Amino acid sequence: MLTLLISIICLYIASLLRSIVLLWQTSIKQLWISIIIQLVVIARGFVFWWAPNANGNFLEQGLLGQTLVLLVASLGIVGIYLAERSFIKNEAIQKELIESQIRFSRLINQSPLAIQIVSKDGLLVDANLAWETLWQVKKEDLIDHYNLFEDEQLVQKGFLKVVETAKRTKTAVYIPNSFYSSSIPGRDGTNDRWLKGYLYPLETDNIENFALITEDITDQIDAETAYKQSENRWLQLVENYPEAVLLSVDYIFVYCNPATVKIFGAQKKEEILGKPLFDFNNEGKSKVLMERLAMLERGESTPPVEHQMVGLDGVKRDLISFSIPVTYQGKDAIQTVIRDVTKQKLNQRKLNHHEKLAAVGQLAAGIAHDFNNALSVISLNSELLLRDIELNAKVHKRVDLIHQQTLRAASLTAQILDFSRQSVIHLESINLNRFFEKFIELLRSILSEEITINLLNYDSENQLVIEADKSRLQQLFMNLAINSRDAMPNGGNIKIELLIGDSDHDKDFQEFYWPNGYAEIRFSDSGVGIPDEIMEHLFEPFYTTKQRGKGTGLGLAQVYGIVSQHNGIVQVNTDKTSGTMVSICFPLSLDDEVSENNISYEVNDTGNQELVLIVEDHTDSGEVLSDILEKLNYKTIVANNGLQALDVVNSTSEPIALIISDIVMPKLNGIEFAKKMLDRNSLIPIILMTGHPLSNQLDQVDSSNIHAVLQKPLNINVLSTTIFSALQKT
Asked: Considering the domain boundaries, does residue 378 fall inside one?
């Protein structure tokens, strides 16, 4: 038994050493209890061993008793071992718990989200650094003082319902975007924020605490607000932008402004939105289009390109467009800007047309003088021959044919000068109502009986007065009437409508300054209309669709020139089913007084031997004029230029009754000669002749001594009447 006792003592010593080592390694305070117990047991054991007489009871006990004591001692060692393991385990658990709490605390404090822990009653228990920074407070000042559930602003926003939901479901509850002006004590209220977050119950069984995790989304909301404001400004800009602006996502139009509707020939945006851009490209997925789309996909902008598009209304338009890659509602998109340049193209074509006319006009003006001089000689000589009663019928017919062809050639020259706006016009106040009243009578006598002519909005009392050259006006509408007749070979209707317009309120005429408004004459027929391929060449000189010998191609070109010379505009609308309407606008006269021009003189083919000075550098013209005047019973003197004519005026002893002078002459022309005569206070009337358009020079001349300006080739009856009229005034 003694040996067994010694063994147990050794075991306790070993256990003691183990406990001491554990205490040194773990610093678990509970291990001191086991160490003390083991020291007591070891001490008692040594007493049994070293001083058996001091306690002979153990040795005197029977075998059973000694066995029980040793067994208890042995079990004590086991109990101590188990207790120490329990101490170590509990200490590990506590340490892990502490470390977990530390990690949790670090996690909370390092989180960018504001986190506050509140009790089940809403009192603040803890909060992280982000929460303190967000609300500019110290949590120590608010713990157990600030009640989240009693925050008036949160209560108004229904926060208590969120709390009840979290209690009931024991799960996190989402709190949507909300603007919050904190009522936390100690805040200065200067950093009101937009927030969103979650309310978490921290226990799953008996909820004792809640965690409110909030994310500050103020910058995001501000950015979204700024984006929306920018988008609104963009919308306000493009909604009133005069050019088409479109946005497409995946090549589908998702936005267009009102200008797009007009340019695309639509009635409303819904006809465009939601449709592929390829639907509005006349060439479909052309190579050029696909190359431009590839540029956009690479993030490159496309350069402006000219193209044509047939709109939903069937109208072909000239366009210029370019595109840039943009972002629309978070998606890659294409912004396209389209400019309608149809009007500019039309104006460019008009400018080119004007340049062509100017070139032809310069050519015509350059040759008109010599050409009309030659025609004047032929015309006057043929008239003299026609007045000769001794000619037989066959010769008379031939001379008459020469005279008619001369007049036709003169008419062609006049047409060229008209459309090139080089001809001389004599303006007078004309009442259009009275003009068309007489003009329609003339048309009815010329056109076929199968063509009816109606004058609409006719009012003889209405002073629809314009400043115009009456003969040019007659030529203009006669050309239109002939074209309408040719467009109605089986008869039809011609309508002439007179209207008054106000250019200040008409977008088509804003480039014209017509302070008194304008008169519009709509000349329409029920013919076959004008094909599209001809419309572009309508006013071009020498362009005609008629058979050879049936037309010169100068009719409408002359119309255009006459209208332009009167500061007006001409527009043509045509349709195969309803015919053609030509709209001509002239500025209304500022003077309501109409020149009736009813003065007439009795034609007297024989003068009274008055002396007439003829100033003409063209020898043949001077000779034939002299012959005609002598037949009209006048005496004549011929000078070759203005300087020679001045010498004649100074040297002749017989008074000169009248001077007839050409305008274009070498040394001293007719206008300069007239000025010289006026400087001498001469009262001799002067009749000027011209085969060349010089209206701009005539405007610079004081016309007090100029009785008339005659256009070559001359006509004997007109010449005799003009001479008689001039002499009557002296």
From this structure: no
Provide the domain limits for residue 136: 111-216
For residues 555 and 571, the answer to whether their CB atoms sit within 8 Å is: no
**Segment 360-415, tens digit of pLDDT:** 666 666 666 677 778 888 888 888 888 776 778 888 888 888 888 887 777 666 66
DSSP assignment letter at 528: -
The whole-number pLDDT of residue 659 equals 93
Other beta carbons within 10 angstroms of residue 486's beta carbon come to 16
CATH number of 131's domain: 3.30.450.20
**Does residue 592 lie in a domain region?**
no
pLDDT(114) > 80? yes
**Above 50 in pLDDT, residue 600?**
no
What percent of the chain shows pLDDT beyond 90? 7
What's the domain count of the chain?
5
Residue 158 resides in a domain: yes
Do 581 and 617 belong to one domain? no
For residues 466 and 545, state if they share a domain.
yes
CA distance linking residue 16 with residue 10, whole number of Å: 10
DSSP secondary structure of 667-718: SS-HHHHHHHHHHTT----EEEEESS--HHHHTTS-GGGEEEEEESSP-HHH
**Which of 423, 543, 404, 394 has its CA nearest to residue 483?**
543
Q: What is the Cα–Cα distance from 660 to 670, expressed in whole angstroms?
A: 9
pLDDT at residue 602, rounded to an integer: 40
Same domain for 582 and 651, yes or no, is no
**pLDDT of 615 above 90:** yes
Q: Are 523 and 582 in contact (CB under 8 A)?
A: yes
The answer to whether 600 and 529 are in contact (CB under 8 A) is: no
